[in-house]
Amino acid sequence: MVRFRTHKESLVSYWTQKRVVVTGGAGFLGQHVVQRLQKLGADVFIPRRKDYDFTTLEACKRCMQDARPEVVIHGAAYYGGIWINQLYPGKIYYENLVMGANIMEASRQADVKKFVAIGTACSYPGYLEGTLSEKDLWNGIPHDTVVNYGLTKKMMAVQALAYKKQYGFTAIHLILTNLYGPGASYNPDRSHVVAALIRKFVEAKLAKAPTVEVWGSGKPVREFLYVEDCADGILRAAELCNDIQPLNVGTGIGTSIRELAETTHELSGFRGSITWNTSKPDGQMKKVLDVSRMRNTLNWAPSTLLRDGLRKTIAWYESHKEEADSRP
Ligand code: GDP
Fold first, then answer.
1. Atom from ligand 1 closest to the CA of residue 214
2. 48-64 pLDDT, tens digit each
């Protein structure tokens, strides 16, 4: 059996007193990254949107001057689940494209030693069969339900390559799969499927409703990564990976939406039934990453089983419902 080193064993010295900017550091994933960095002794700067609007280069440059980072983890993004991509494709396109370009340019000008771009599995071709391997990244257009988000994030990989060639800039690009856990968006227009289902089942249980509506056919297959595992993987990659080629970060395990809905149904304690609304989009039929390069490069794999992660997330949601529901 392969033994993966624990997070603490390898990261403690690398992060101690390191100056790190985490864009999106107050957001869902960013919060978990920041908590870990602080535990590891890093000097973390979290730029807030009201102070630094990253759609302007001026704000990005000011952020770098104020923080003087050695490492930048660019996790800020305007995104969400399948529905927000249908509601606001223009905003998703513009904000993510411009933020990525500006932050990387400002990081280069500020002589940042390592830039960690947080990318997405939505960048992969949307109509491939099988698991998504890094070598397939450029072999087709993303699925039309997520194309605006997927392509703009992927442009950071193009920018990184150009900057490497011209300026010797060091960047890595991590391709994350669907995340879930405490602190996600539970807003029905914005949420990804796990948060959406947890909210629906918990609310139906409280209201003693007869049924819960789940979107699509139930057939699409997704991979779900617990946000704390993801934060571990990002820090590990930031330390150990120097390859400019994008790197998948996930579990490599596919679960159908039907199975996810049935498991969430069971764990939530809701006693009613599930109704499938097939007028809502299925999106990509299979979005599961090939994580073999990740395992080899990082000597690491996520440790939270989906059932355990769902249980923890349901418990968190039930005890933070008001706060969770009020997030945009
Ligand atoms: P995607 O991975 O980009 O497609 O994003 P999502 O996490 O939003 O959706 C994943 C799948 O879950 C899609 O097939 C959705 O149709 C399905 N799904 C089922 N019920 C829901 C729901 O209530 N909200 C969302 N966002 N997706 C749902």
1. 20
2. 999 999 999 999 999 99
